[in-house]
Design brief:
alpha/beta; about 375 residues; OB fold (Dihydrolipoamide Acetyltransferase, E2P); single chain; Rossmann fold; binds guanosine-5'-diphosphate; binds zinc ion; 9 helices; Ribonucleotide Reductase Protein R1, domain 1
């Protein structure tokens, strides 16, 4: 049985690397997979058949079970996420960093993302220390690097060794430059800094996995890294409003002693978080407030949408075994009611022997 890792997945097929064969193959899907609508994503481990080493082709017959999955951008079997931002050019964006931390914590569950600070060559030591001081005590591993000078790359390489990592961050912070250092064969295009604060200029849905040489890996597993395509802020996940603080370790800790069980830690008197605000980095509390507000807005939108859906259907056939059927729109409802009344009127007219007109109430 030959297995491989999907490097890139298209509607037409996949690029799959097999460690056993030491080859990257262009693979089609076995028809059954398509029929059963099995999704095959970047990072998936697949079983191959009909391997033709000379032509560099094979057929994917099945997908092995996923051990993890990141949905935006979709990558399977991810071990860790590395969030990259630069100190300057573009400027460090604390809210974006916290947004990405929360998003990937929700996506990955237990594994805390790693914070990678690039372009340290153009930052002063105090700026870098300030960032370390915020994130390290919270349990995040902070790696300070420069793709320009190579500083810190050894630490980054040791973190990536033998793992599947996702590199995520806004455009212009140096992700491609970092990948080019990790694997000089990649020759990724290094772009200019975009002034707008969006996460990426191009919104594509697929991401690509690169096999990188992190040394000392002959016996160990390969190291893989996925560069994420640009995605919109609206694609980032939010927890429920009253659960946002779980994603902020410093707030979660203070919550334990908060005397209100459903405290939002925003305005409540004697809230343990508000009484200890000096222990929280101001930028972190600002991010918390923003994410709560966004989560509330998202919830509201969801409620309005579900009310609309509720209003559009009704239960027919009893509460337990009933089925949902669409309600007739007002126009049809009125027409059918009128129809019923007309029918009744006709019936009563026929049953009467007199030629009296039966008034039909058409007002509704
Ligand atoms: P990406 O959009 O995140 O992939 O960023 P790029 O790798 O395309 O880099 C954007 C710009 O930042 C390019 O002009 C790079 O030369 C520059 N750059 C990348 N890394 C560094 C660094 O460590 N220091 C400095 N000074 N510039 C860097
Ligand atoms: Zn509180």
């Amino acid at each position: 049985m030959v297995t491989g890792t999907v490097l890139r997945s298209h509607a037409g097929g996949c690029l799959v690397h097999s460690d056993e064969l030491g080859l990257t193959l262009l693979c089609a899907w076995r028809g059954r997979l398509k029929k059963e609508k099995v999704s095959i994503l970047t990072g998936d481990l697949v079983v191959l058949d009909e391997v033709d080493c000379t032509a560099g082709s094979a057929v994917i017959v099945s997908r092995l079970e996923r051990r993890s999955f990141v949905s935006r951008p979709p990558v399977a079997n991810v071990d860790q996420v590395v969030i990259v931002q630069s100190v300057h050019q573009p400027e460090w964006n604390p809210l974006l960093c916290d947004r990405l931390l929360v998003h990937y914590q929700l996506e990955m569950g237990s594994a805390l993302p790693i914070v990678c600070v690039n372009k340290c060559d153009i930052a002063c030591p105090t700026e870098l220390e300030a960032l370390q001081k915020i994130y390290e005590p919270l349990g995040y591993f902070v790696i300070i690097v420069s793709a320009a000078t190579g500083q810190g790359m050894d630490t980054l390489i040791s973190v990536l060794r033998g793992k599947v990592s996702v590199l995520s961050g806004p455009s212009g912070v140096g992700k491609s430059s970092i990948l080019n250092i990790l694997d000089p064969e990649l020759h990724l295009k290094v772009g200019a800094v975009y002034e707008d604060s969006c996460l990426g200029r191009h919104t594509t849905t697929s991401s690509e996995l690169y096999r990188i040489d992190t040394g000392r890996q002959a016996a160990a597993k390969s190291s893989w890294i996925a560069d994420t395509p640009g995605f919109n802020l609206s694609e980032l996940r939010h927890p429920e409003p009253n659960e946002v603080f779980f994603q902020f370790p410093e707030l979660a800790e203070l919550y334990a002693d908060c005397k209100f069980s459903n405290c939002m830690h925003l305005v409540e008197q004697e809230c343990n978080v508000l009484s200890n605000l000096e222990k929280i980095a101001p930028s972190r509390y600002e991010s918390y407030k923003t994410l709560v507000a966004e989560a509330q807005a998202e919830n509201k939108l969801r409620q309005v949408t579900s009310q609309k859906v509720d209003a559009a259907v009704k239960v027919v056939g009893g509460k337990d075994q009933g089925v949902l059927v669409p309600r007739l729109s007002g126009r049809y409802r009125a027409a059918s009611r009128r129809g019923e009344k007309q029918e009744l009127a006709n019936l009563s007219r026929r049953s009467k022997t007199t030629s009296e007109e039966v008034p039909v109430d058409d007002s509704q």
